[in-house]
Amino acid sequence: MMTATQSLERDSDSPEAGPFIVTNRLIFSIALPMTLGFLTTPLLGLVDTAVVGRLGRAELLAGLAVGAVIFDLIFTTFNFLRAATTGLVAQALGRGDRREQQAVFWRSLVIALVTGAAIVLISPFLLSAGLWLMGPGPDVAEVTRTYFQYRILSGPAALANYAILGFVLGRGEGTLGLMLQTLINGTNIVLSVLLGLVLGWGVAGVAIGTVAGEVIGALAGFAIVYGRFDSKDAPGWAMILAGDRLKKLFGLNRDIMIRSFALLAAFTLVTRIGTSFGPVTLAANAVLMTIFLVAGYYLDGLATAAEQLTGRSIGAAYRPAFDRVLRMTALWSLGLAALTTLALLAFGNAVVNMMTTAPDVRALAYEYMPWAAVTALTGALAFLMDGVFIGAGWSRDMRNMMLAAFIGYVAALAVLVPAFGNHGLWAALNLFLLMRGVFLLIRIPRRAAQTFMPVQ
């Protein structure tokens, strides 16, 4: 809820402060660059999978898939650093509080570097736990170990990139976000092909390419962001480490981390259950999950626009902007999701052919392609609602609705997988995505009324 004190904190000299008009141009000034930027991430997954898939051995592709899931569990669980930073910076932007924008950046960056270093130190335990959780065979596990021992070195840089990108997106600077994402993933793609395929380093080359991309991106991003700070707005350490501000940041981080962990657990179950169907099915599911991520990151651009503009509207205490953001981004998300589903139904098999040369993997991927294609539609509302709730700071609701959807997902797995095998696995995943979006949508009217309650 906006208070009188928060309203008085607004800096009238800031051009971003106060009421603003939401237009398609404003939405796509954030969404379009970030759609392109986010698409480089699944494109990277496509390239990595294609590099290893070209080696013609299913256990190499399966080992890469297991390794990628382990790193999703490790790094993407900490995506709260990006999300919380974006929401808090956007709200400070709406208030015109430049000093707090910088303070949020420094808080997040310190947390990122400390956490990243800790991940590297406990990496042997993380690898053992990951292999125990995924349960791959000996040959697949050996490939995963090779991949892990190199890629884990990117920990501090990878998490620093979350903080940097969160700050950039919180300010609505989609073009700069695109540049940084392209630099990170572009470097990764080029080096993965060069080291993994051309020089024949295989899985190790793919992992080293990832480390190089993260480090180069973090150094460039920090230099750009820091170079644009105005020294007169620089916060002191007392402000950066203020107890109430840290409590708010950690509260957001906690809730978003729980939400992210539940989401990753849902995706991990796809791989874990797929493992029980054998290496060929596991490899086919890995290919299709990569295609699913293409649709996910594609829609994430609009979710990012909703996140920034929602946070800004709440910082400005301006309900009309909030309502318009929600309505316009929902229409665009659902429309583009429908087009994405149609495109995957028409051309998905051709994408599979580019990703693997193994005939048995291709055949199974063709069979399950319709399930991967429809995830764009079932997941559109879920992606958008995540953006709205993160930007608004309604992290507790997002956490609780995610847990409710996850319970429903586990129940669906228990019923559908024994009855329909891998088809049941994909059906349960689509139900999970749909539940997430609907559960969050139902919460919006009450939360918006509370947040925009008139100042007394």
From TrEMBL:
Any GO molecular function: xenobiotic transmembrane transporter activity
Top-rank taxon, per record: Bacteria
Chain segments annotated as transmembrane: 20-40, 60-83, 104-127, 147-170, 182-201, 207-229, 256-274, 280-299, 329-348, 368-389, 401-420, 426-444
Keywords: Membrane, Transmembrane, Transmembrane helix
Transmembrane found in the keyword field: yes
Subcellular locations according to the entry: Membrane
Pfam family, one: MatE
Topology class, membrane: Multi-pass membrane protein
GO CC term (a single one): plasma membrane
Entry annotated with the keyword Transmembrane helix: yes
Membership in a protein family: Belongs to the multi antimicrobial extrusion (MATE) (TC 2.A.66.1) family.
Name used for this protein in its record: MATE efflux family protein
Organism: Sinorhizobium medicae
Lineage of source species: Bacteria, Pseudomonadati, Pseudomonadota, Alphaproteobacteria, Hyphomicrobiales
